[in-house]
Amino acid sequence: MNQSIKIDPYGFREYDARWLYEKDINKNGIIELGKGLGTQIIKHTKKDNPRVIIGHDYRSYSEEIKIALKDGLISTGCCVEDIGLSLSPMVYFAQFKLDSDAVAMVTASHNENGWTGVKMGIKKGLTHAPEEMRELKDITLKKEFTRGQGNEKEVKNFQDIYKNDLIKRNKLKKRIKAVVACGNGTAGIFAPDILRGIGCEVIELDCKLDWSFPKYNPNPEDLKMLHEISKVVKNNEADIGFGFDGDGDRVGVIDDNGEEIFSDKIGLMIARNLSSNYKSSKFIVDVKSTGLFTNDKVLLRNNCQTIYWKTGHSHIKRKVNSEKALAGFEKSGHFFFNSPLGYGYDDGINSAIQVCHLLDEQNKKMSEIINELPKTFQSPTMAPFCKDEEKYSVVEEITKIIEEIKNKKTKIDDQEIEEILTVNGIRFSFKDGSWGLIRASSNKPSLVIVTESPTSNKRKKKIFDFIDDLLQKTGKIGEYDQKI
Questions:
Q1: Residue 77 near residue 149, CB atoms below 8 Å
Q2: What residues form DSSP beta bridges with 384?
Q3: Is 9-156 a CATH 3.30.70.920 domain?
Q4: pLDDT of 202-227, one tens digit each?
Q5: Where is average pLDDT lowest: 14-23, 26-35, 79-88?
Q6: Domain boundaries, the chain
Q7: What is the mean pLDDT of the chain?
Q8: Where are the alpha helices (DSSP H) in 189-276?
Q9: Structural element, H or E, at residue 328
Q10: How many CB atoms lie within 10 A of CB 156?
């Protein structure tokens, strides 16, 4: 008996697709997704047999999903080139190296076990934006599929080609002792080799592949993972600690004292370091990022401009591309390096390499470099549960309330709201540089809350309390994943 088709429409997210397998999508649903993606690729490339690079991460069921996705793609006429076990950036790199028409990466990144998904793109170096995701959802759910005769081939040893490309361009002058943590995710077979290859002394932490993620999720925003790296950095007197996410497009950084450095601050340090060689550059940062970029003295001295933009790897990637920015930085640890430093997409290992260059060139400890930045008190990214079908309207409701508070000049912790940015949720800022952010998560049924204050920890907490109070009054908020 044929299995029915199951696809939860909410799995089509803002810039990729994610489902619980097989609760929200089954194998036949994945085949349909492949047909939808194949049809979309053919429509946009105007080719009958476009070439599509495909890879998968190390979850137990990822290969099975990849096979179903390939079946769907081939049925529309796509020629699939399978590069095997991959990181997302390796798939993006393959599109440049093999000059293909599109990419599809089977991964749920750092989501808990049980999740699956696909990151996909047509234009080189870019992944689907909301309009492409809406189009893909429409084609797939309405079954408006092209029929054709595609094929598949296996591309052998592509892992080595990817590793060597990063190694040969990035040799270090001095030896840097680095803890490399992969949370038993796919980055474990890439990051240690590449960082050793450029000249680091590598101390491996949870680099053995284990799809059950026995200790913690491979997520560089996860405090458990960061605490583990911190311990190993201190015990080994390492110069730096790196934590990579499940599909290798993000990195978290721990300094030589075992202190976590939020990725937006890492971005600012890298931007400062790059700005002296690349004057008048543009940098793109997401709305969750520190307010320090705006008035940074080093960036201003080198005539560099920073643009705050929508959170999400696809949004920042596209903005880096359209603004011809030198680099983009996301609070979650996605960094994007454009020509001549990279191909514009997010690669956690290339990001770690840029941090190594920073240490290589500055001849200072990481803790000394971070101390040169003005001090701010930052919250971690906090995610209270909110249903997918309610999260956007909750953010709209809160935005109206905050806009009214600003218009009425009502004070919060003795200060008026000075500026509001609504490019992605709402980010509201005060005269002292403190700010708060509320937005809907793009890939989970939750909201995203971040606060920062250059004044005090207490002020950071007061802004969070103000946000939390507004959210609780909606009656539509559940448990937080973490809280300050």
A1: yes
A2: 480
A3: no
A4: 999 999 999 889 999 899 888 899 99
A5: 14-23
A6: 9-156, 161-371, 377-474
A7: 95
A8: 191-198, 223-236, 263-275
A9: strand 327-329
A10: 11
Number of C-alpha atoms within 13 angstroms, CB side, residue 476? 18
| 45-to-41, 42, 50, 51, 150 alpha-carbon distances in Å | 6, 5, 7, 10, 15
Cα separation, 167 vs 349, in Å, equals 10
Instruction: Decide if 161-371 and 377-474 have a common fold.
Output: no
Condensed to tens digits (0 to 9), the pLDDT of residues 386-436 reads: 999 999 999 999 999 999 999 999 999 999 999 999 999 999 999 999 999
**3-state per-residue secondary structure call for 290-311:** CHHHCCCHHHHHCCCEEEEECC
Q: How far apart are CA 240 and CA 178, in angstroms?
A: 5
* CATH number, span 161-371: 3.40.120.10
3-state secondary structure of 403: helix
Distance in angstroms (rounded) separating the CA atoms of residues 38 and 231: 46
Q: Which of 331, 298, 305 is nearest to 316 (CA)?
A: 331
**Dihedral (CA of 111, 114, 115, 117) sign:** positive
Can 109 be counted among the known catalytic residues? yes
pTM: 0.87
Q: What is the rounded distance in angstroms from the CA atom of residue 194 to the CA atom of residue 172? A: 12
Residue 483 DSSP symbol: -
| CATH H-level, domain 377-474: superfamily | Alpha-D-phosphohexomutase, C-terminal domain (3.30.310.50)
Nearest alpha-carbon partner for 277 in 378, 354, 193: 354
Exactly one of 86, 88, 100, 109 is catalytic; which is it?
109
